[in-house]
Amino acid sequence: MAYKYCTADNWGKDFFTHDERLKFYLSGQPGNVWVVGDNSDGEAWITKVSGVSKTKAEAQAIVDAEVVIAKANYDSQSDEYKANHSSPTDITLP
Amino acid sequence: MSTYKGIKGFTVQTIAGDTSPLNEGQVYYNSSTNLLKVSKNVLGTGAWSSGGNVVRARSTFASAINATQTAALFAGGYPAPAGESEEYNGTSWAEGNNLNQARHGLIGMGTQTLALAAGGSGTYTANAETYNGTSWATSTAMPAGKNNSSSAGLQTSALIFGGLLNGGAGAYDANTYLWNGSSWTEVADMNTARSALSSFGLSNAAIAASGYAPGVVTNVESYNGTSWSEITELGVSRASMAGGGTQTLGIFGGGYVGPPFVANTETWNGTAWAEVAEMATGRASEGCGLGTASLAIAGENPGYSALTEEWTVPQTITNVTVSSS
Known about the structure:
The complex is a heterodimer.
Chain A: E1 3-7, H1 18-21, E2 26-29, E3 33-37, H2 40-48, E4 52-54, H3 56-75, H4 79-82
Antiparallel strand pairs in A: 1-3, 1-4, 2-3
Chain B: H1 4-8, E1 13-15, E2 27-30, E3 35-43, E4 47-51, E5 62-63, E6 72-75, E7 85-88, E8 93-95, E9 107-110, E10 115-118, E11 128-131, E12 136-139, E13 146-147, E14 150-154, E15 157-161, E16 164-165, E17 176-179, E18 184-187, E19 198-202, E20 205-209, E21 220-223, E22 228-231, E23 242-246, E24 249-253, E25 265-268, E26 273-276, E27 284-289, E28 293-300, E29 304-312, E30 315-321
């Protein structure tokens, strides 16, 4: 499957609809990165949400930076917190 | 011999031709085609759509687990720990009154107007609070303090199970507490101690799945009002899923597998799990609602999330012919 990459702020209700989810692949990632199925419906959704197109490498760099922040946050947490959570790991975009 | 009227209290209606769908389960006779018909609820394809963002991004809060997709409630959470509650109207979240004790890792039961929250951190509290649709009031504390438990039921009859006891890593709990509206009673232990497990159902008919102990637990258990029994494991075991539903029709979405965070969604039909459409944003979150209409609220992936996703299975009442064979 081919993908497009963009950033877009999720404004909430109807940012993506039930009907849209049945028409194209959509995956939200840290840093407001969205991986979108490369078809006409996915393209229309990117336009609808005013998505800013990114290359895969650019999108991956945004996600990586968010994971670094999350790891630092985890390391600063209490033992009690860590007893219920694992440390964040790297995310590889499809 | 049993008759339809004897069982249902009325006769089968005779209609000259097909009619628009009647009430689900209603039987009628089509005198034009000489066929017996029944109105049946047909489920469509479920999917997650975006709901309103919560006011403040957070995780490990108490969601009123039997609240609905259009009238939900949660309170507390992390970071802070937080005391604020928020209410959902199907479109947007609005901040409500605060818990009396700000905390995270607490667990919620009930509905938007009659809720119960108990346990949590940072001091492994046993304290419980009830919500009347407007404000929180201190209630009877649980027998022991714990955090990251899971729950089922309503404000007047609820169940809390699992969690992490004071003692940190290694103090994973299998205890189950039954709430009758005024006091707690310890009932049958779960078979597998764990925290960050997920659940749905009522106090006498609950499903509890997966969790963390440490590392992701695969076990899924069913409670029948007396004891827990092992049932079929999820296709993808994971901790901190959003759950909603009943013991015969439920859903779990998201969670974390070690990590990473995942978007997998599985539905339960009373017998087996089925992998269905994934969430848009995989994350650990809290949930509420039904198997056909539920919410995945906020959480973390791995930063704190403000997102809401709404799981909806379209339903259509359709007339079908009753076969004689």
